Amino acid sequence: MTPPLPTRAALPDELLDRPQWVGWRTQTAGGNETKIPLDVNGGYASATDASTWTTFDEALAYATAGEADGVGFVFTDEDPYVGVALDACRERETGATEDWAQVIVDRLDSYTEVDPSGSGYHVIVRGSLPPGGDRTGGLELYERARFLTVTGDRVDETPDCAADRTTELTAIYQAYVESGESPDVPSPVDAEGDSTQSTSLAALDAPGNDLTDEMVVKRASNTANSLEFRRLWAGDADAYDSREDADSALCSILAFWTGGDPEQMDRLFRESGLYRGKWDEVHFADGETYGEKLIARALEEATEFYDPSGFSSAVRRTASKGEHDHSDGHDTTRDVGTASAADADDTAGAHSDDHSDTHAADHSGDNTGNHSGDRERRLNELQERVESLVEENDRLRDELAEERTRRRELEATDDERDDDDGGWSLFGWFK
User: Region Disordered: which residues (predicted)?
Assistant: First the structure.
C-alpha cells in the first residue's frame, strides 16, 4: 500500500526548513519488504552523505512525479531530533492501538503520524538518546545516520511540532532498549513516570510554602529576571517554539515559587493568560488531563523551590523523601527566576545578625525570636519597596510610550500641513 504524500501544512515547520530530505521506494529482498532512500538526481541516497539529500519541496516533487513512493527525513548529529518508530501496533481499519504503543505516544506527547503501512506510528521529538542500542521488539529509535519515512498523517490530539523530550526518551530507553524488555509486554513505563519514579502529583515530594496566590505573582514579577514570567502570565508565547513549551515554562516557574504545591500551581495557571480549554482535556491513556500532566512534569523536573523564611532563598529537593537541603542560592536547570534582591539582602542581614549577636543569644533565648521578627519586618519593607519601584518603572514606561505616540502624531500632522501649504516648515527642516 502506497500512502498519500504529505503536504507542507501537515508537517512541523522546523523539519521543512532543513535540507535533509530524500525520496524512498519499497523493495523486496529475500521475501522481506524494505524501504530504500533515493536521491532526487537519480540513484540511491545515503543517510551519511549530505550531497544525496535535498529540500522537502524537491523531494516531494520527485515523489509526486512517480519516481518515489514517498519522502523521508534524515537524522544527523547536527540536528536536535530523534525519531521513534512503533511497529505493528495499530489496527489499519479502526485505528485501535495496542496499550504499549499508546503509553509511549502519550508519554512523548510530540508530533506523531501513522506510518506508511498504516499499522504503526512514527513520533518525532527534540532530544538525545543515551549511548547504546536503538531497537527492541516493535520499538526503534532514530538519532543519527538513519532516515525515517514521513507521511504527514498526523494523529489527532498530538502536537503539530517536535517537542523537547530528552527526559521521556531516557525513561523509554532504559525501560525497553537497555533492559531488553519487549515493548509488547506490560510496560515498566506508564504514562506518569519511569520504572523507578512515579510523577503522580500525590507522590511527589515538595516543601510547599505559605505564600498566597497574590504574593506568588508579585514575587515572581519582581525578580531580576522576571520578564519571562510577566510575558507568560500575560499569555505571550511568542518566544517559544510551541504553546506547549510556553505552558511548560510557566508551570516550571510556578513550581519554584509555590514550593511545589500542585493545587496552587493549577489555580494560578488558570488565572494566567495562557489558560485555555485544552488545560482540562484528557490527553492520556491514564485519564490525566493536559494540565495535570504539565504540572506533574514540572514537579518531577524541579530541583529547587522558593523558601520565603528569610533564612535562605531556596529549598533544594533531595533524594530522601521529606528531607530538604537549604541553600543560599537558586541554581536550577530550568531558569525559573531567582529570589528577589529583598530576599538576598535579608539573607545577608540574617548572617550578620547571627554573628554579631551570638554572645547575647547565649544569655537569652528570646533574642532569637526578636531577630527573626526583625528580619521578617525588613524583608516585608524591602519587598514593598521593590514592588513600589517596579510599579513606578511601569508607570514611567507607559508615560514614555504615550509621549512617543503623541510626538509621532504631531509630526505626522505637521507633515500633512506642509504638504497642503506646498512649502516647508522650520520644524520639518530640523527633522
Answer: 316-431
Beta bridge mates, 357: none
Q: Are 262 and 291 in contact (CB under 8 A)?
A: no
Asked if 118 and 1 touch (Cβ cutoff 8 Å), the reply is yes
Contacts (Cβ under 8 Å, ≥6 apart) of 407: none
Which grid cell sits at 395? Answer: 508607570
* pTM exceeds cut of 0.70: no
66 conformational bin, left if phi > 0, alpha if psi -120 to 50, beta if neither: left
Residue with grid cell 525513561, as numbered in its chain = 171
Angstrom distances, CA of residue 229 to CA of 258, 269, 365? 14, 12, 41
Higher pLDDT, 301 or 158: 158
| Cα 182 from Cα 282, distance rounded (Å) | 28
CB proximity list for 149: less than 8 A, separation 6 or greater: 24, 35, 70, 71, 72, 115, 116, 122
Q: How far apart are CA 146 and CA 282, in angstroms?
A: 34
Q: Which helix (H) or strand (E) holds 73?
A: strand 70-75
Residue of 370, 192, 363, 207 lying closest to 283 (CA atoms): 192
Burial of residue 173 (CB within 10 Å: 0-12, 13-18, 19+) is buried
43 against 391, higher pLDDT? 43
**Closest to 314 (Cα-Cα) out of 324, 301, 328, 333:** 328
pLDDT for 65-78, tens place per residue? Answer: 999 999 999 999 99
Q: Could you tell me which residues come within 8 angstroms of residue 76 by beta carbon, excluding any fewer than 6 positions away?
A: 20, 50, 144, 145
Residue type, 167: T
Q: How far is CA 398 from CA 224, 248, 410, 417, in A?
A: 20, 30, 18, 29
Average pLDDT over residues 303-308: 84
* Exposed / middle / buried, residue 398 (Cβ in 10 Å: 0-12, 13-18, 19+): exposed
